[in-house]
Design brief:
2 strands, two-stranded antiparallel sheet, 9 helices
């Protein structure tokens, strides 16, 4: 340790004037301080995994990114339409939640393209929860009041919003909770990131997870901004009716089905390639 002149962190400073005082855990092993596992992951291991993912999935990534871009352009930057002064004070909060939800989708995708399959699902579950919180705050004045008084809680969230959102969105929330966020079948399986992309099941499931998150985000932000735009993708309201109904035969669902069929055809989930070790546990989701 004392023989090192320049700091291994590459700051250009002397080791004694930079990181030495922070390396408090002594070891007798011959450790390469400049190439820790975390640094190696960032610089060495993750980039080729991302590159391999991009080669296989670039068409699907483009299609999903375009879909998401349309939603962002149409709805992301609208203010929440407040009905009272107290409601107006929550507008910044709604904008922030929308923005953070979008970044969480980006984060989930970034994890997935690096082969961090289970970890991506944890973030996608957060996307679904954020979407339900947005609807809860926009649809329920009592919940807005609690939020403004710093007393808001997600306890009971599903029960409060389940009549306002499609059943499949509740199902997705449960799916991500059971299999990714809470301890479940994936947590006891060793999924090696560098070996993910020969496994079609991981590819297909991960892409479907991204699509689910984008869809949930889209139907959420369209719902809360329904009255400020025409030509809706997800919701409709009959003349003289104040309630909204899901457009069950809309183009979004055709797009979802086309994506599903195409990726299943190109990457059959049950395909097994020679020389690749597959875990049977990884496909037994709840």
């Amino acid at each position: 340790m004392t023989a090192v002149k320049k700091c291994p962190c590459k700051s250009g400073k002397l080791f004694s004037n930079c990181c030495e005082q922070y390396l408090i855990l002594n070891t007798e092993d011959d450790m390469d301080y400049a190439n820790t596992l975390l640094v190696e992951w960032i610089k060495k291991y993750a980039p080729p995994i991302k590159s391999e993912f991009s080669k296989k999935m670039k068409s699907y990534v483009f299609r999903i990114s375009y879909f998401l871009e349309v939603l962002i352009a149409r709805y992301l930057y609208f203010d929440y339409e407040a009905n009272s002064k107290s409601d107006k004070s929550i507008n910044e909060t709604i904008l922030s939640i929308k923005h953070n939800t979008l970044l969480t989708i980006f984060g989930g995708f970034s994890c997935f393209e690096q082969g961090l399959f289970m970890q991506s699902g944890i973030l996608f579950r957060s996307v679904i929860e954020n979407c339900m919180v947005i609807i809860d705050l926009c649809e329920h004045g009592t919940q807005r009041d609690k939020f403004l008084k710093d007393k808001y809680s997600v306890n009971g969230l599903v029960g409060r919003v389940k009549y306002l959102i499609p059943d499949f969105m509740i199902d997705w929330y449960g799916y991500f909770s059971r299999n990714f966020t809470h301890f479940g079948p994936l947590h006891s399986v060793s999924i090696i990131p560098a070996k993910c992309w020969p496994d079609n099941w991981l590819l297909v499931t991960g892409i479907q997870n991204i699509v689910r998150s984008c869809c949930a985000f889209g139907l959420t932000i369209e719902r809360i901004h329904f009255d400020v735009i025409r030509n809706h993708f997800f919701w409709e309201r009959k003349e003289g009716d104040t309630s909204m109904k899901l457009i069950e035969d809309g183009p979004v669902w055709d797009w979802l089905e086309d994506i599903r069929k195409d990726i299943l055809n190109q990457y059959p989930p049950n395909e097994r390639k020679e020389g690749i070790i597959y875990s049977d546990k990884s496909i037994k989701l709840k």
